[in-house]
Structures are given as C-alpha cells and as structure tokens.
Amino acid sequence: MNQADQVYLDLCQYILAHGTKKEDRTGTGTISIFGHQMRFNLQEGFPLLTTKRVPFKLIVSELLWFLKGDTNLRYLLQHNNHIWDEWGFQKWIESDEYNGPDMTNFGLRSQQDEQFNAEYQEQLNLYQEKVLHDDEFATVYGDLGNVYGKQWRSWEGADGKTYDQILYIIEEIKRNPDSRRLLCNAWSASELENQQLPPCHYAFQFYVNNGKLSCMFNMRSNDVFLGLPFNIASYALLTHLIAYECKLEVGELIYTGADVHIYSNHVEQIKTQLQREPRNLPTIKLNPERDSIFDFEIEDIELVGYHPHGAIKAAVAV
C-alpha cells in the first residue's frame, strides 16, 4: 500500500469518526476537524492518489497559471480547465450587467432541481464562451481578483512596490540554501475584498537539507474530497519544479490544515473511496530542455505509470 493514499484515507476515516457537524458559507454543511498534518516522501513516488482518478492535466495547468502570475480564467478555459469557473460565474451573475434567469445559490440548486440545472448549464456555457472570445467581458468578469498568481508573482507591499515571491525563493535557495526565509504568503488582509475566493492554501515554505528540497504548505480551509487531492499533487509538482530550477533532489512534502472538512454531500463518495485498495504511485518527468520553470508548458510535464481506480464524481460547493 502506498503511503500517500494511506495517510489520506486515514484522515478521511478520522473525520468521519471524530469530526463535528458544522454549517458553512456555502450552505452545504460539513463534518469538520481543526488541525491536521500529513507528510509525503517524494522520493517514494509522486503523491497523486490512486484510490480515485485525479485529473493531472488540470493540476498542471492550474499551477502553471499561478506561476505565470495570471488571475484571468481565459488561460484555464483555453486548456479545458474548469475548476475555477464557478467563482468567475458567480462574479458575473451578481453584477448589474447580468440579465439572465435567477442563478442565486446555483451550486446547491443545480444538484436538487433538474430543470434549474439545465438553465444553469446554459448560462455557465454562455459565460465560458464570453470569457474565451470577448476581450472586454473577459477583462471584467474573467478576472478573479488578486488571487494566487497575483500574490505569488506581484505581491504589493506597503511601500508601494511589487515583489515576486517565487523568484525570490529560487534566487535565495541558490544563494543561501540554509535560509529560513524561503517562504511565500498569499494571504493579504487588504486584498480580501478584491478576491473572488480568499486563499485557502495561504502560505508555503521550502527547506533544503542534504541536497533535497522539502516543502510545507498551510491551508486555512480544506475540502478533503475534491480539493485536498489537488492541493497535495499541486504542491508536490511545485516542489519538483523548484528543485529542478535549483538543481536539487526532492525531499518531503508536508501538509498542515486548519479547518479540514468533508462536505455533507461528499460522504458517500468518501465511503466508496475508502473501500478501494491503493495502487503503486506514479512518477513525473520534466522536460530537461527547459532552462526555467517559468518557461514550462503543459506538455513539458509528463506523468508516468499512473493506473488509478476510476473517478468518483461530486459537486463543488461554491
């Protein structure tokens, strides 16, 4: 049994057994615990869960989107990545320019009402097309505000200057690998009103030891079924990319979560996943011809040997 799936499934079992039922912003309801940590040895394989299929290309395109400093959905839609669509869609339907059918609480209503779901899908498709092909619309309603890409690559300081936190980390690792300041922060109190979704994975820090690069990332809030498998793989990939740039091996990935929860409409899916036997972890292969991680495209990152169980569908709580 691979260690990555095991620690994840252990967490799921613990939440179901010991979690507290809580209400939440989305109105869905959760089973929640407060405070949890998991460790993944990246030398043992790439921690992409095998007890359900996790779409790796979506993880790659989202991470590259962050690293480009982009905050507009167009790049993701161009790569058939729809994991952020609902946040931009919500921005549009809450605007004065929207004049379609009432989409209030579309996340819950689309699960409960087939007729409404058909209307919702129609409006969502319209939104996606407009972001892809209407520059003016995309500028206003495709942009999610100062989310991860902006904070990672163009942090605005109190001094009025902007700071590239990712570039700083890379340069500092090369200059002073023993530094205890290899840290990126995406949480800015002054920016919260300008973000369609305040950062869930709000900070991460790197650590170099014996030629290996480790990373610890912190999450204030974590959807265990849909979000966490993405987050684990995304930060594992980021660690591989930074290690590549700095000519290091990979070490550990450490996850620290605060409000760690299973949504009430994901419980049956979690139970299905818990019945599955983990399989061997895959590995990843990076294009050795790329000089910088900022030059990487999706095709430069290859997943090797991934043979998971089938996907398990679940609705996103918005």
UniProtKB/TrEMBL annotation:
Compartments where found: Cytoplasm
SUPFAM superfamilies membership: Thymidylate synthase/dCMP hydroxymethylase (SSF55831)
Gene3D superfamilies xrefs: Thymidylate synthase/dCMP hydroxymethylase domain
Biological process annotations from GO: methylation
Keywords, comma-separated and alphabetical: Cytoplasm, Methyltransferase, Nucleotide biosynthesis, Transferase
Entry EC no(s): 2.1.1.45
Keyword Transferase: yes
UniProt binding sites for dUMP: R25, R180, R181, R220, S221, N222, D223, N231, H261, I262, Y263
Domain Thymidylate synthase/dCMP hydroxymethylase per the UniProt entry, residue ranges: 7-318
Location, primary (coarse class): cytoplasm
Protein's pathway: Pyrimidine metabolism; dTTP biosynthesis
Subunit structure and binding partners: Homodimer.
Family note: Belongs to the thymidylate synthase family. Bacterial-type ThyA subfamily.
PANTHER family: THYMIDYLATE SYNTHASE, THYMIDYLATE SYNTHASE 1
Record HAMAP family: Thymidy_synth_bact (MF_00008)
Name listed for the protein in its UniProt record: Thymidylate synthase
Organism of provenance: Halalkalibacter kiskunsagensis
